[in-house]
Specification:
It is a single chain. The protein is α/β, with parallel strands linked by helices. Helix content is 30%, strand content 25%. The strands form 2 sheets. Strands 2-1-3-4-5-12 form a 6-stranded parallel beta sheet, with helices on both faces. Strands 7-8-9-6-10-11 form a 6-stranded mixed beta sheet. Helix 1 crosses helix 10 (297-312). The protein is globular, with a radius of gyration of 20 Å. The chain starts with 7 loop residues before the first strand and ends in a 10-residue tail after the last strand.
């Protein structure tokens, strides 16, 4: 193989903060090589210009069609916001072109929960093209689902799972702050929540994944979203006035035959006092794990995507993070 052509070809789609972090992680991974990048916001610029440092000689395109056609056998690393219905056309295009897909799309982490027909189509297509489609990240994809499943490998039957993730949102981007309702008055938060505009996508999918990882299947999932109100002004960023929304508490409960078996809680708050990740398994033996500070969201998401790229090429069909090897 000629110099400069070693490794699995990678096409990047989406060069926002997460996509750029993914690009940098790819550059540190010898068995991957970037052959194309797609983002209409950066059309015509070089990848090196956008990254602000050394990168392969790649000009960013607005349309993936030509790039996908030249990357058969490679991997599409997909870091574009939006729900699964919005993402499906590009995912389908990539699979038809013969690329494995690793995505950050939250609903794709366990699409059978809310998009069963779409999941069946995508699974059948990926099988027919001999590739895989996978979504990963930290929430969902690791902290509240894959990690509990991993821990359950050393216990007997899991009677109940409780997992909590607390994140300091002080460094949230304007877009993230808006999705969390940060800065809103309580009434405005309730209105936005009723419209489905707030919260962390993929929490229900995390509950389903966590249950499967722990050896059982849920038959009912309930979600709730509550504002965390600032008792005093918080400087941020973003700054939050006294009485305004400083973050959210997003909870999911999963049931089997009417009994709660899974309880997941994500609290994202400006100035959170004790960021951490915690998992408790009611099993024999009982297990608990606490990660002080929590798993860093942006950088860890990038590495979750990049570390999944090569293993995903060995899988087929629509798969989940539970199908990945436990280690690298």
């Amino acid at each position: 193989m000629a110099e400069g052509t070693r490794g699995i070809p990678v096409v990047l789609v989406g060069l926002g903060p997460t996509g750029l972090a993914i690009a940098r992680a790819v550059l540190e991974t010898p068995d991957l090589r970037i052959v194309g990048a797609v983002d209409p916001a950066h059309q015509g610029r070089t990848l090196a210009e956008v990254l602000g440092g050394p990168a392969p000689s790649v000009t960013i395109a607005a349309d993936p069609a030509r790039i996908l056609g030249s990357a058969r056998g490679g991997v599409l690393l997909h870091a574009v916001g939006g729900d699964l219905d919005d993402a499906e056309p590009l995912l389908t295009q990539a699979v038809r072109a013969g690329l494995t897909v690793v995505s950050t799309c939250e609903e794709l982490c366990y699409p059978w929960l809310a998009h069963e027909k779409l999941a069946e189509r995508l699974d059948k297509l990926a099988e027919s093209r001999d590739v895989a489609v996978l979504a990963t990240g930290v929430t969902p994809g690791f902290a509240l689902d894959r990690l509990p499943g991993f821990l359950s490998q050393v216990t007997g039957p899991v009677r109940h799972l409780r997992a909590v993730r607390v994140v300091d949102a002080a460094a949230a981007s304007p877009g993230q702050a808006g999705a969390l309702g940060i800065g809103l008055e309580a009434a405005a938060f309730d209105e936005a929540s009723d419209r489905g505009d707030l919260g962390q996508p993929g929490m229900a999918q995390s509950a389903a994944l966590a249950a499967l990882g722990c050896g059982f299947e849920l038959d009912e999932v309930e979600e709730s979203l509550e504002p965390v109100l600032a008792e005093a002004a918080r400087p941020g960023p973003p700054a939050v006035a006294r009485g305004a929304v400083a973050g959210v508490r997003h909870s999911v409960r999963g049931f089997v035959d009417g009994a709660e078996r899974v309880q997941l809680t994500l609290r994202v708050e400006v100035g959170a006092a004790d960021p951490h990740d915690e998992v408790e398994l009611d099993a024999r033996p009982p297990l608990s794990l606490r990660i002080p500070g929590g798993v860093p969201g942006l950088e860890a998401t990038a590495w979750a995507v990049v570390n999944a790229a090569a293993p995903a090429t060995l899988l087929r069909g629509l798969v989940t993070v539970l199908d990945l090897p436990a280690g690298r």
